[in-house]
Amino acid sequence: MRKVIVNEFLSLDGTAQAPGGADEDTTGGFRHGGWHMQYGEGGGMVELIADAGGFLLGGRTYELFAGYWPQASEDMREIAEPLNTKPKYVASRTLADPLEWQNSRVLSGPLAESVAALKEEDGGDLLVMGSTVLVQSLIQHGLVDELRLLIDPVLVGGGKRIFPDDGALRPLRLVDHEATRLGTIVATYAPA
After folding, report:
1. CATH number at residue 160
2. Distance between alpha carbon 70 and the CA centroid of its chain, in Å?
3. In total, how many domains does the chain have?
């Protein structure tokens, strides 16, 4: 059975919005886009992306990635190659097949049923990056097998978060952890 692994860059105060660039996502008046970039990639991202069997993306993240990775520079090849060639499953209410980015398709039917079916298929684990609304839904439906959080030592004072604000108690257990030389904590959790 495949696992769903959520990999997220988070500020210390829990924000996941726009870690990669100033114009990445300014919704809600968010002004601190690119807050993660000073802490570098690191944390095993290249290996995680290379090892993924496919990618599970929300519509907005899909559009952002599809606009960037097919034309990524040669120095980004280690990340671009698996992102461009491996299957991408898109959870969206607004996008429809056929999608332009190769090996991409929109999930059909209810999200929980579609993702549960994907988990039953053969292949490597499914990696989720960004996609804050999707991640909240996956957590609410108990479909996340691993949370891999890269927590940067910065406070951004607000923005989109990945954890549902629904009052539910969801115990986790720490599976692995490390700290980078720039102070990012890479913590991996699984449901307890």
Report:
1. 3.40.430.10
2. 18
3. 1
Rama region for 103: left / alpha / beta (φ>0; ψ in -120 to 50; rest): left
What is the reported pTM? 0.95
- Give residue 99's domain range: 4-164
* Residues 31 and 57 sit within 8 Å (Cβ to Cβ): no
Backbone angles phi, psi at 48, to 5 degrees: -60, -45
Whether residue 172 lies inside any domain: the answer is no
Q: DSSP strand E in 78-145: where?
A: 88-91, 104-106, 126-129
Cα separation, 140 vs 9, whole angstroms? 20
Alpha-carbon torsion (84, 147, 26, 92), positive or negative? positive
Mean pLDDT by groups of 10 residues along the chain of 192 residues? 97 96 94 93 82 97 96 94 98 96 96 97 96 97 97 97 97 96 95 96
Whether 27 is in a domain gets the answer yes
